[in-house]
Amino acid sequence: MAREAARRGDRHARRRGSRHRGGPRSLGRRRRHPHQPPRVGPHDRAHAAQLRAVRPPRHAALPGPGAAVRGQPRVGAGRASHTLPPRARRPAAGLHRRRHRGVGRAAAAQPHAGAGRPGAAVTVPSARVRIEEGVVFASAGGRELRCDVFRPAGETGPQPGVLLVHGGSWHGGEPAMMRGYGILMARHGYPCVAGEYRLTGEAKWPAQLDDVLAAVAWMRDEAGELGIDPDRLVLWGQSAGSHMSLLAAARLVGEANPIAASVNYYPITSLEPALGTAWEHAQQLPEDPATADWAAMSPLTHVGAGFPPTLLLHGSADAMVALGQSQRLYEELTASGVPVDLTVFADEPHGFDLKRAFALHSVEVICFFLSRYAPLNGDAA
After folding, report:
1. pLDDT range class, residue 256, cuts 50, 70, 90
2. Residue ranges covered by each domain of the chain
3. CA distance 328 to 170
4. Is the Cβ–Cβ distance between 132 and 118 less than 8 Å?
5. Which of 37, 156, 266, 344 has the fewest Cβ atoms within 10 angstroms?
């Protein structure tokens, strides 16, 4: 009887202790249910985050002519090109510890001494990259326009330079959004400049395009100081930034030193209602939307023979800038005999590269593309 009472008391103590996290001290921690996932410690979480960071994303095949099949040639208008097959890659040192997932936002979220201070150009140390912030490259509208410069550490000789043009629906954004890409590309050997432009709240079209062209002119004038080859400039834009970088590339076709290559994330190629939800933001560009010449403001109107080799990256589920914007540009450039690659990220929305794995993978795609059309010194074209 005494033993039976003791057993009942023990069961009662266990039930009472199970109400408290970890159970009663005398009984230790509560046993884990066989279907309950194990507890994850800090080391395990860090390891899991690293695995997520290097997992390659899925791609969707572009239907119809010029279909992109992962790792296979894409053929269009007699031209063949390849899309880089996904491969795991360790994130660049110092970036994988950011709390934010997006490469651009993650790097921009870090505070820097003097950042944003008017009249101050700040040099920020970073492994294998020299960063100078707040450099004046032009004056417009009664104020100075500034940029951030990212250069590979050490003397590498003149290399292709990359102008990074941020997005933000023409009314928002800043060069700091491109900081992560500037660091990554500089580590790959490409000097980069992330320049600002006047937003629609400050100036109307074509002030934004004028500012991008001013940044191109400044990079050529300062090529020696920047360590870039003025004859091998790359224009890289995102969303609204791609709208302006594509127009700038078209403007420079036929000049003595045209743009070497064009890189575009979810680009705005035609200003029309079918654009997507970004069409609403486009209404802020001109002085009078009712009388604006939207066709003249659209890159699709200006591309053709002589346009630089172009890379397009787009999510198939983009509601802000429809995938058709990239598809139409792809078709137009292919018909004009211009080398063009279109990489579609399956089921991904606008800004898919804010996810770390997609950002890192897309940089590999871009570097593969540039190795053909704007190769680094010593690389095969």
Report:
1. confident
2. 52-65+75-111+120-373
3. 22
4. no
5. 37
Other beta carbons less than 10 A from residue 352's beta carbon: 24
Distance CA 229, CA 209 (A): 23
Distance CA 282, CA 212 (A): 18
β-strand pairing of 129-140 with 143-152: antiparallel
Is the four-CA dihedral 277, 278, 279, 282 of positive or negative sign? positive
Proportion of the chain in helix, strand, coil states, percent, rounded to 5: 35, 20, 45
What's this model's pTM, rounded to 2 decimal places? 0.71
3-state secondary structure of 74: strand
Query: Among 220, 209, 291, 277, which Cα is nearest to 245's?
Result: 209
Residues with Cβ within 8 Å of residue 248, at least 6 apart in sequence? 209, 212, 213, 216, 235, 259
Average pLDDT, the chain: 77
Condensed to tens digits (0 to 9), the pLDDT of residues 48-87 reads: 333 333 333 343 333 333 333 333 333 333 333 333 333 3
CATH superfamily for 52-65+75-111+120-373 is Alpha/Beta hydrolase fold, catalytic domain (3.40.50.1820)
> Is 303 within 8 Å of 259 (Cβ atoms)?
no
| CA separation for the pair 31, 23 (Å, rounded) | 9
Q: 173, 208 in Cβ contact below 8 A?
A: no
Residue 335's identity, in one-letter code, is A
User: Can you say whether the dihedral through the CA atoms of 261, 101, 166, 162 is positive or negative?
Assistant: negative
- Whether the predicted pLDDT of 39 surpasses 70: no
- The residue written with tokens 């080799």 in the block is 309
What is d(CA 10, CA 4) in angstroms, rounded to the nearest whole number?
10
CB of 366 closer than 8 Å to CB of 312: no
Residue appearing with tokens 């000049």: 255
Q: Which positions ≥6 away from 46 have C-beta within 8 Å?
A: none
